[in-house]
Amino acid sequence: MEGKDLEDKVLRKLEYDQVIAMLAERCSSRLGKELAHKLKPSLDLEEIKRRQLDTTQAKEILRLYPDFSLGGLRDLRRCLNKAKIGGVIDPSDFLLIADTLLALRKTKKFFCSELGQKYYSLAEYVTNLATLPHLEQEIKKKITDEGEVSERASSELSRLRKQLRNLQGKAREKLESMVRSTEMQKYLQDPLITIRNERYVIPVKQEYRSEVPGLIHDQSASGATLFIEPLVVVEINNEVRRYESMEKAEVLRILRQLSELVAIHEQELQDILFALAQLDLNFAKGRLSNHLDCGEPQMNKRGYLKIIQGCHPLLKGEVVPITVHLGSSFDTLIITGPNTGGKTVTLKTVGLFVLMAQAGLHVPAQTGTELSVFKGIYADIGDEQSIEQSLSTFSAHLTNIIDILKKANSHSLVLLDELGAGTDPAEGAALAKAILDHFIGIGAKTIATTHYSELKSFAYSHERVENASVEFDIETLQPTYRLLIGVPGRSNALEISYKLGLQKKIVEQARSFLSQEEVRAADLIANLEMDQLLAEREREEAHKLKTGIQKQLDQVKQREKELKEQEKKIIQKAQAEAWEIIRKARQESESILKEVRKAKKEAKPQTTRKMQVLKDELRKKETALAEVVFRQLEGEALSAHEVKPGMLVFLKQLHQQAQVLEKPNENKQVLVQAGVMRVLVNLQDLTKVKEELVEQKGKTTGIGKIVSTKAKTIKNEIHLRGLTVDEALLEAEKYLDDAYLAGLSQVHLIHGKGAGVLRSAITDLLKKHHLVSSFRLGNYHEGGHGVTVVELKKQ
User: Fold this and answer.
1) pLDDT tens digits, residue range 311-346?
2) Bridging pattern class, strands 746-750 and 717-719
3) Looking at the 3D structure of the chain, how many domains does it have?
4) pTM to 2 decimals?
5) How far is CA 229 from CA 118, 187, 202, 603, 655, in A?
6) 764 is in which domain, residue-wise?
């Protein structure tokens, strides 16, 4: 636009800032949100086309690949600046850097496939970026998922921590021996070991101070308890402190080394941030396009615009779309009609669509919509639509129009609301015609609303000016908000009066006072309005039908693709589980045959042949073993009213148990949880799970043998420390399934303390896991916050 003040004023008047707020909400990162708030309309046609293409490609990716995500993009600017000036980055900030590099790596992998050619505009953002694998690997090696420096970071750190654990263990052993001592317990407030001033101490009653020689580090609020470091562990604690200092120095050295590595790649990391933030913004544009049901407009720089069935993006409820064009057969459009008929909404819709399009946003209109690039957009739109405006309001509008007259040119779009209102009608109409005549003369594209009848004839007398009106329904006495181009507005006063109950005789007499020209003009306008309305409705019905069919075809194709992917995954999983059972059975059979061969080693040849026949027969039966096992789970058929969320069912075709998530839909399809996947299956493919396999306890069936095997090997705890978050979640989920099969009621997930990242991820998993009844952090003797204790549901 031309001039910052005017630009901000127009953007605000046309509510562009509210659209930008909706866009920012759909960004997944802070950096993306900042870019959204800075997004302004461009004046360069090629730049605008590129922005539009970015939005279109992002929208298509979101439709075809709904799992695509830029998750992991973090705001690294603070820590990068810190590294740049020689500072030491916090361990947790290194994880943010690694997350961002991982996000880049996944994004490049997506776009560097054959999809990179299809979505070439978006691929360009990341194609030439370095993924910095060495930096990511160094961070992963030296920083744990909890945001702590790993023992693997250096051999010296590993040695120091090992020695530190040994010293701490010795100190605890000595103190535990004292605490367990019968003689010592009478001196203690509680038989426990705690820490004060980073040294191991025990709580001694005040009156027995002299019985426990050592150093006092603290006392309770009441003074009844003293926290004493016994002399027997003072020297060991001194060594602990010394090694802790050495450990801190080594940790600092490692962090400084990593920070220097980050500083070397600071500019590359800044480039990565900007590129991923740009992608985040583009995908937000795609989401906004989906939300508002938008499409990509065609763009030109000829001053031509055509909006087909466009809806203002900020209006709530049922919105009547408008169809309007300008810049082809006429450059000025004069809209007349009722003051509350939607004329102002039309102005704002046209102006906002142009701003959105030049910013690279799609617009909520039908295919075929075309917009021009305007180097200046000027609007005089008042907050009041009443024609009874005060002189001060007239002055304010005129001051604004004077400013527009100075700046507008042939590359400008001018939007004028109730032009000339607020003063004497004759003078106001004359002033309005003179202003419009000026804009016509300079070639500006202009849309003006008015209630002056004189401007209708003004349009007829100018070749590049067209009338338009907002339709009014005589039956309901309400505006329909439909814009009719080529049809000037009419007052409808006589028809409205008759509908409201005015005597027909009076209405007819009033009509007789009109000149024959006025009567013919009114009839002509009415006929034009009816013809255009019928034509528009026919076009609208045809377009709706075409759009509806295309939408259904797209939905069918997408559903087919999704079902094929689900089917492929389910079959693979079912086959893997079935062959696992067969593999175990084969191992048992091979073991038996081995024993038989050993026992019959000296047997006759006939016996050997029989053994081979037996072995061949056994192998033939192996392939049927899985079906035998699976049939044990299959029960009676289910009816729609029996299927309830939470119940266990059996998938006949996939030979697998599943849990119902939702009631059957109208197509008699049921959403179930089968392992880690959610699957939509037909009701006829489900049966009840045999009652004895759900409720039977203490008996070993074909399936029960597998369970009993699990029970013999599964432990009541699993160690997850040292794993990445993704690795830990997979291990935890598999372990919970095994523990449930083994019949365990309580298990311990050991994840360590650290920064709490892994603990938080574990908590999120447990909240939604279907086998978990409840969970809590461990007590002191169980490991404290480094352990989560899980109660499993009863079988």
Assistant:
1) 999 988 788 899 999 999 999 999 987 665 578 889
2) parallel
3) 5
4) 0.62
5) 70, 14, 7, 77, 64
6) 714-792
